[in-house]
Specification:
With 147 residues, the chain is mainly beta. The protein is 4% helix and 35% strand. The strands form two sheets. Strands 2, 4, 5, 7, 8 and 9 form a six-stranded mixed β-sheet that branches.
């Protein structure tokens, strides 16, 4: 409007590249053991999962899958400081092997879209409710608990 030319002296361009994914969650493990038998579950009715925080992450997606790959539990844990999950509802588990995973993510403000995804750490654990007379893991198949 005042005859001042603010045009660039040359052509410029830039490229918008995808946001790099978060690094894999490190040191993911169950807090005490990865085999939960009746003796353990009588003493402590929870299973604790822990991992290290991932820089720049704002949330974590925690999942437990059964041996067939069906999701038994899926939780979104908000906050980068959430580096553990305590499973206190053991009724969702049955006897057998389970796989669990945790990955760092960043959601949109409405929590519907993952803006930055991460590589998930995957581990497994086993639940065996069977007991023998001394309270340990039952070895004999076909043994009755009561008559």
């Amino acid at each position: 409007m005042d005859d001042l030319d603010i045009s660039a002296t040359g052509k410029f361009s830039f490229t918008v590249e995808p946001i790099p994914p978060f690094e894999m969650t490190k040191d993911a493990k169950t807090e005490t053991t990865d085999f939960f038998d009746a003796s353990y579950l009588r003493k402590k009715q929870t299973i604790s999962f822990v991992w290290q925080k991932v820089n720049r992450a704002r949330s974590y997606i925690f999942e437990i899958r059964d041996s067939a790959g069906k999701i038994v539990l899926r939780k979104i844990l908000d906050g980068n400081e959430n580096t553990n999950f305590v499973l206190d509802d053991l009724t969702i588990l049955s006897k057998g092997e389970f796989n669990w995973s945790v990955k760092a993510v960043r959601f949109s403000d409405d929590k519907k879209t993952i803006l930055v995804d991460g590589a998930g750490a995957q581990k497994s654990f086993t639940v065996d409710f069977a007991i023998n007379s001394n309270g340990g893991k039952r070895k004999k198949k076909g043994e009755f608990y009561a008559e």
